[in-house]
Amino acid sequence: MGGFLRFVTRSRYHAIGVSALSLLMPPFSFVGGAIIGLATLRYGTGEGFTVLAGSAAVFAVAMWALAGSIVPAAVFVVVTGLPALALCALLRATSSQGFVLAAATLAAGAAIVMLYLAVPDPAQWWLDTFEAFLAARTGEVDPKAFEQLAALLRAVVTGLPVAVMVTSMSVVFLARWGHAALDNPGGFGREFRDLRVGRRFATGAGVVAVVALLAAPRGAGVGHDLLVLIVAACAIQGIALVHGLVALRGGSRGWIVAMYASLLLVTPAAVLALSVAGFSDVWLDYRARLDRS
Which of 33, 167, 207, 285 could disulfide-link 80, Cβ–Cβ 3.0 to 4.6 Å? Predict the structure, then answer.
């Protein structure tokens, strides 16, 4: 992996080429965002923007030649490229992953609120638009097939800001890991194990969560989406907490493996448990307590 990282950072052209190539292979498209983040962390925002613009341009040309559309390139810039650039620039300035997580969550929350202000029912608006599009292309829409598709699209549309936040933070973590591997071996692990969002953020998140639980209809609306966002952010701190506790106790890596396995096998329960642990850690600071003992 060290050889790959050194190759990518050899020049901006290497970074642009590898980033654009990764975007053409969907399973590895997140690598493109991580390379943009790595360039930002190592060389500054200007270099990161250059890599973003260059890789997006190459990807746009390739998609125009292959599919006659540059929409995938635009989606990459908005959903992955710009968030990775902004968050890595913030991390470079603050050296605090917790601060970056709080900022990403606030930005996603603002996007959710603005979305509902612009369109009171975003999922229904998108479904109506999509149904009209299908009808224009096929002449008619199969009610049963559309009903199944509608359930999937509704979850995707309302959960998009949360997904962008989680994906962006994953890209930031990958970029920071690569940065540390090149310039500060072991630095990423120490920084991640110390991740904390701060009590001001936790207080505001707690208030929003309580209001959402009391005032918002269950399973729908802006309150539900904000609540899911808060749970996701606190779960990320919960993951950092588990890493930190295992490291402080000198525990087996089996605990880490078990945690990630639970996220795959019993996702809702594991996410909720990690979220509760992460939120309570803001106030109880389990890592500091264990370190003192």
Answer: 33
Write down the pLDDT at residue 47: 94
Q: Is the pLDDT of residue 205 over 80?
A: yes
Q: What is the mean pLDDT of residues 254-264?
A: 92
274-285: per-residue pLDDT in tens?
Answer: 999 999 999 988
The chain-wide mean pLDDT, for the chain, equals 86
Contacts (Cβ under 8 Å, ≥6 apart) of 206: 279
The span from the first CA to the last CA of the chain, in angstroms, equals 37
The per-residue DSSP string of 72-120 comes to HHHHHIIIIIHHHHHHHHHHHHH--HHHHHHHHHHHHHHHHHHHHHH-S
Tell me the Cα Rg of the chain: 21
44: left (phi over 0), alpha (psi -120 to 50) or beta: left
Q: Distance between CA atoms of 293 and 289, rounded to whole angstroms?
A: 6
Query: Cα separation of 100 and 94, whole Å?
Result: 8
Distance CA 75, CA 81 (A): 9
Residue 273 in tokens: 């448990």
CB atoms within 10 A of CB 291: 11
Long-range CB contact pairs, 57-66, < 8 A, 24+: 58/16, 58/17, 58/20, 59/20, 59/23, 59/24, 59/32, 62/20, 62/24
Residue type, 261: A
Tokens read off for 223: 């309150």
Q: What is the pLDDT of residues 90-105, one digit of tens each?
A: 999 999 999 999 999 9
